[in-house]
Amino acid sequence: MTGTTMVVLIVLISVGFGVLYDMYKKHLEFKERTQQYNAKNSEQNIQLKKQVSVLEERVAVLEKIVTDQGYQVSQEINRL
């Protein structure tokens, strides 16, 4: 191996490791951002699930009111 070949190999290896190191750093940053995003979304999902359950209860009550015979009779009387 000549001296020039050795220098070229050393430069290529150095650049290659530099690129790999930068890729690894970007990967770690992405992983951290993803974890932060997931934590934020988890909190929002919990709040939204609570809101959905409250709304489902309200809809169930409204369905009972609307399907009640007394309500239907009252509506028919009002129409007359």
UniProtKB/TrEMBL annotation:
Keyword list (alphabetical) reads: Coiled coil, Membrane, Transmembrane, Transmembrane helix
Q: Which residues form a coiled coil?
A: 38-65
- List all membrane-crossing ranges: 6-24
Q: Does the keyword Membrane apply?
A: yes
Report what the protein is called: Phage shock protein B
Q: Which organism is it from?
A: Thalassotalea marina
